Amino acid sequence: MKSGTLVITGWSGFLGSRLRNSLTEHVRVIPAPRDLIRSGSAEELEQFLRRHRPDAVIHCAALSDTGLCETNPAQSFHANVALPGRLARACAAAGTRLVAMSSDQVYNGVRSLEPSSEEVSLAPVSVYGRHKLEAERAVLSACPDAVILRLTWLFDLPVRGLKTNRNLLTGILDAAVTGSPASYFVHDFRGMTYTQDLISAFGSILSLPGGIYNTGSTNTLSTYDTAIYTASLLRIPNPEVLIQRNEDAFRDSPRNLTMSGEKLAAAGIRFPDTKEAIARCLSDFGLLRQGSDV
């Protein structure tokens, strides 16, 4: 990544902390003040941007707990719609590039079993998905050259000093350590992306034309089968006992959040598939056992 200055919102969160940790080796990173992001006006945000003159703002701040969003829609709207809308207006006024994170949850409700392109008709069924879609529209309306990344489920393993969210890998490792079985959906399909693969792509992402991009790893396996595959790489004995099948959820209408990556690929940005990404993550942390079938 070329030298320069970046502002990161949500810098203490799961993705933001890892971006800050990695990108500071190459660029000057300015963490956006929490109070300013949460409650500052568009004018105050604009003043902050004009004072620091960053090359781009990477907007990671969000309320991503889908259950909490469902029970607290007003809180979700403030964090996931109003906030990015204000930030987009500030970036447009200051002439600052904006890269904003969205989610594969906007595809929750698509009935096709094929990977979705950015152009499919959307009608998200959850509060979080609806608010993420609303935020995309608000951001592009205010700041047409913004880049919006529809992210898959991100995963990583714990790193000292960085926030760790529960993901498929941490769930399986917790189950292996405690002996308490973990349950995963049979009728659920989604890509899962190693955060380091996403971070490595940011140099190219910052140069993309404005618009919406499906971002991350593809996956042909169900969430359950992905969990079994991960357990096999970890050489966990009898993984079918530790990894339980949830066949009830989405039985009548399978959930498919898989996304086509063709638009990003045309721009020269490609991600490994989920199986390869999981294997590399485990290898990076010294957990890929000898003899694992990769």
Task: Name the descriptors.
globular; 294 residues; 42% helix; Rossmann fold; alpha/beta; two-stranded parallel ribbon
List the helices and strands in order: EHEHHEHHEHEEHEEEHHEHHEEHH
Please identify the top-level CATH class: Alpha Beta
Helix content: 40-55%
Strand segment count? 12
What's the end-to-end separation, in Å? 30 Å
* Count of folded domains: 1
Named CATH topology = Rossmann fold
Instruction: Estimate the global geometry from the Cα principal axes.
Output: globular
Give the strand order of the largest sheet, numbering strands 1, 2, ... along the chain: 2-1-3-4-5-10
Largest beta-sheet characterization: 6 strands, parallel
Beta-strand portion reads 15-25%
Uncertain segments of ≥5 residues (pLDDT<50)?
none
CATH superfamily, please?
NAD(P)-binding Rossmann-like Domain
In DSSP terms (H or I, runs of 4 or more residues), the helix count works out at: 13
Task: Kindly report the average pLDDT value.
Answer: 95
Radius of gyration: 19 Å
Structure classification: alpha/beta
Architecture (CATH level 2) name: 3-Layer(aba) Sandwich
